[in-house]
Amino acid sequence: MLERIKSALIYADVDKDAYRLVKDKIEYANVVTLTIYSLVAFVLTTIMTLLYVFVIRAMSEAWVVFIFGVFGSLIIFILAGVCRKHLKFTYFTIYAAISLFMIYGILMGTLCRPGEQTVTFVVLMLFLPLLFIDRPIRLIASLVFYVTIYLIAAFHTKSGKVLMADVSNAVMFGMLAIVSIFFIVRVKVNGFILEQRLQYMSEKDQLTGLNNRNSYEWHLEEYPRRCVESLGCVYIDVNGLHALNDSEGHKAGDIMLQTIAHIVQENFGKRDTYRIGGDEFLAYTVDWSAAKIEERMRRMQQQVREAGYQVAVGYAISPAETVEMNALTTKAETYMYSDKDEYYRISGKKRRGA
User: Fold this and answer.
1) What pLDDT was estimated at residue 61?
2) Are 186 and 14 contacting, i.e. CB atoms less than 8 angstroms apart?
3) Residue-level pLDDT at 164
4) Which residues pair with 238 in a beta bridge?
5) How high is the pLDDT of residue 64?
6) What is the residue-wise DSSP string for 126-160?
7) 126: which strand partners?
8) In a 3-state reduction of DSSP, which class is residue 205?
9) Between β-strands 230-239 and 280-286, what pairing exists: parallel, antiparallel or unpaired?
10) Staple partner for 253: which of 35, 239, 245, 305, CB 3.0–4.6 Å?
């Protein structure tokens, strides 16, 4: 039971490892929310300030609080912009935003309107923590802290039925907000986890774990923008897969592909390595020299032979300023087929398929 409560407070009752996997998605969603919310708050508090100055013409405490809201929301908007480039500042900015607007609500409900029931703080108390995604225990601790501050301020500025109504509303709606935090954060985090899993399934080859054909097609146009000096393409085709499937079964063929995929990824990296067909693999090399590509190809082929298999390999390289993806890939594929023809000519084995 204690472990379940701990999991709910820290990881919103979802798997710890899954929570950490979607950490970047959570932080990006928080930055977007911060940006939109602070911009809307800046516009609204600016409008209210202008109304007080030019329409109501009253230099009251409310006017000062609106000014506080204007400059505070502007600062949060600027910090949200910083967070877009430096996600590590996201949670600092989240709690700075929560602090700013909770204090704004407290001032509006006590200092500005001591004789009226509080609306602004109650709305912010219910609404604000649900905007962001973080470990529930931190959101709840923040909420409890500001409700406590509000109650202290209310006892110093209000009295009678107004005080009793505000105290009961703060406690009742505060408890409702705490319960809502658990459920809303859990739903949001689970949504990101599901999105991550669907993305993985759509972009990853389920047998080898490499990027699949979909991922290859989606990222193809990124490579000319990524390279500064050159872009290389290494085309790899497995020799003997069909024969192995026929003689030892598809399980043996699967082990063969998994082994070769691991070797290819080890030599050319996870990000730019793809399984684009049944027995075809492809890797792009960003700003690698021809000598480095050839050295990795030799090492890869040696490792594949040591594992008891054979691959045909071809590569092509293009200067960054003249990269043409289809021509580059086709050239590498042509060299691969030449290597494949040579393998079957020397081995005397019967060739099946590509």
Assistant:
1) 64
2) yes
3) 93
4) 311
5) 82
6) HHHHHHS-S-HHHHHHHHHHHHHHHHHHHHHH--H
7) none
8) coil
9) antiparallel
10) 245
